[in-house]
């Protein structure tokens, strides 16, 4: 079976770099091409089972007897595997998987991929239900990689209320991970991203023999220090067009850096010039090089407008922002912000994660076109919006701001009520349903406004009437 390739963008924000003290791990899940309908569900221990079958590799993984409930954003069509992608478990541990990354021939000669191993389609399902901290997530996935191997290169992020860990696979069985400083953020496009690495630090983890492997096979090209991107990653022409510009654009806005889009040495760990909000993260993951010559909707030359791969893209299937809050009770701390479809014309909804079911319009995505659910409605808005960005962008921006404000009001009231409720599950599910209904109503209204505005500019028109 052919394995599909995903091309995502990951954004991580430490608790002291966020506006409210939350940790946030976020990612655009992008398809290789076309539509890959997604849904939002909850997996309970009864549904988890004791064995996982990896469809793409025909690998069977034995699972622990005890599992935790978790949210999940899998494919509507599971014929090629689950592809759970993102979630928050009942202990408020979040995981996003994966960011497809790069490698090089030197490491693959030493530790080749394992065709019957595990990969992106499997990671969330076999890790998230069994971990009680972000660090445990790294260690569990690391053990699974060493046991079963992997057939691809990926980046994975874990978070809890205190910490964020970012992990990258190396070859078939090796891996490395870094704890992101609390006052920092990270932008990770589709390349091996970890740069400077200290094997002796408490802020790093890796497969046991990784340091020895570098020495034994003379893999380090640098005269001083250890840079995993230099050792195990790429520095290709494709990186200068496909990967580096995405990191450059967000770092330019969040940190005020003056680097160039093609810079191969953009830093992995970055520090923002001001604290970052959910709105900032969503803006970044919806961006397309606005106010530069490289904006596909801008005024640059046709060469400039197609020179770099933008962050918002027709291949965006969903964006999630997994937020673990520190200023509320643990029962309501996990928020699975979610939107489907290309990000320039959608909006994220702050769904509570401590639930047993997800709302209609999000859990019932169909494999084929049906604009009554959020996924297909989002793709419809994007298709029309893309046809005349200047005409529709203000409508979309107003829709996103007003919808997020309304959802935040519902969230604030629910937080207040749930804080005094010892068993708030039903209350949280009702709030989620209310926000989902609000989003679908507002998005449908936006679609109507776009149709009405666009109809007035159709070429098939005539100035005279009866």
Automatic annotation (TrEMBL):
<keyword id="KW-0378">Hydrolase</keyword>
<keyword id="KW-0224">Dipeptidase</keyword>
<dbReference type="Pfam" id="PF03577">
    <property type="entry name" value="Peptidase_C69"/>
</dbReference>
<dbReference type="GO" id="GO:0016805">
    <property type="term" value="F:dipeptidase activity"/>
</dbReference>
<protein>
    <recommendedName>
        <fullName>Dipeptidase</fullName>
        <ecNumber>3.4.-.-</ecNumber>
    </recommendedName>
</protein>
<keyword id="KW-0645">Protease</keyword>
<dbReference type="InterPro" id="IPR005322">
    <property type="entry name" value="Peptidase_C69"/>
</dbReference>
<dbReference type="GO" id="GO:0006508">
    <property type="term" value="P:proteolysis"/>
</dbReference>
<comment type="similarity">
    <text>Belongs to the peptidase C69 family.</text>
</comment>
<dbReference type="InterPro" id="IPR047804">
    <property type="entry name" value="C69_dipept_A-like"/>
</dbReference>
<dbReference type="GO" id="GO:0070004">
    <property type="term" value="F:cysteine-type exopeptidase activity"/>
</dbReference>
């Amino acid at each position: 079976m052919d394995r599909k390739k995903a091309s995502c963008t990951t954004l991580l924000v430490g608790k002291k770099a966020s506006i409210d003290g939350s940790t946030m791990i976020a990612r655009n899940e992008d398809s290789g091409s076309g539509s890959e309908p997604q849904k939002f569900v909850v997996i309970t221990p009864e549904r988890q089972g004791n064995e996982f079958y990896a469809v793409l590799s025909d690998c069977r993984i034995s699972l622990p007897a005890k599992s935790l409930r978790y949210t999940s954003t899998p494919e509507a069509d599971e014929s090629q595997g689950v592809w759970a992608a993102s979630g928050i478990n009942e202990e408020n541990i979040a995981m996003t998987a994966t960011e497809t990354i790069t490698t090089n021939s030197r490491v693959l000669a030493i530790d080749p991929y394992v065709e019957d191993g595990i990969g992106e389609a499997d990671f969330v399902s076999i890790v998230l239900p069994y971990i009680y901290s972000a660090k445990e997530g790294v260690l569990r996935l690391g053990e699974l990689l060493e046991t079963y191997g992997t057939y691809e290169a990926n980046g994975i992020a874990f978070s809890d209320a205190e910490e964020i860990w970012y992990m990258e696979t190396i070859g078939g069985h090796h891996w490395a991970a870094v704890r992101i400083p609390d006052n920092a953020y990270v932008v990770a496009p589709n390349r091996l991203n970890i740069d400077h690495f200290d094997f002796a630090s408490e802020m790093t983890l890796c497969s046991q023999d990784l340091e020895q492997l570098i020495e034994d096979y003379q893999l380090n090209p640098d005269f001083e220090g250890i840079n995993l991107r230099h050792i195990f990653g790429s520095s290709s022409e494709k990186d200068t067009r496909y990967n580096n510009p995405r990191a450059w654009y967000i770092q330019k806005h969040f940190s005020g850096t003056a680097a160039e889009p093609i810079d191969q040495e953009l830093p992995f760990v970055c520090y923002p010039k001001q604290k970052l909000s959910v709105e900032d993260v969503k803006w970044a993951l919806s961006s397309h090089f606005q106010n530069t010559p490289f904006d596909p909707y801008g005024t640059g030359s046709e060469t400039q407008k197609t020179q770099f791969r933008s962050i918002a893209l027709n291949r965006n299937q969903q964006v999630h922002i997994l937020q673990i809050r520190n200023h509320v009770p643990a029962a309501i701390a996990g928020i699975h912000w979610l939107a489907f479809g290309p990000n320039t014309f959608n909006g994220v909804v702050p769904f509570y994660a401590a639930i047993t079911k997800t709302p209609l319009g999000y859990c019932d995505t169909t494999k084929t076109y049906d604009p009554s659910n959020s996924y297909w409605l989002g793709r419809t808005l994007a298709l029309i919006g893309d046809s005349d960005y200047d005409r529709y962008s203000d409508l979309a921006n107003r829709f996103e701001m007003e919808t997020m404000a309304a959802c935040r009001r519902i969230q604030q009231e629910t937080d207040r009520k749930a804080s005094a409720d010892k068993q708030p599950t039903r209350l949280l599910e009702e709030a989620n349903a209310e926000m989902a209904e609000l989003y679908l109503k507002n998005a449908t209204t936006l679609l109507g406004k776009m149709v009405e505005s666009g109809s007035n500019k159709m070429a098939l028109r005539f100035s005279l009437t009866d």
